[in-house]
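Objective 1b. Sequence-to-structure analysis of Small ribosomal subunit protein uS15.
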Amino acid sequence: MVSKQRKAELVKKFGRNAKDTGYAPVQIAILTEEIEDLKVHFANNKKDLHSMRGFIAKVNHRKDLLSYLKDTDYVLYEKTIKELNIRK
């Protein structure tokens, strides 16, 4: 779970203003943070299949948002994936 303070930092960094939580790069950054936290959880709890379902849903949602961003603003897409280090 990402703390409110961390979410506020991500919104400030990736958003157009401090309250712009609906902006695609902000949503991608928050989902990436949650996914990274869950990776650590699954390293310790390999049999937690119930949480794995939610994890996969988050990964798919991020994938959809990345696809949308790539289609609408490719330069912002490149900048976002570079800053978040999510693609090779």
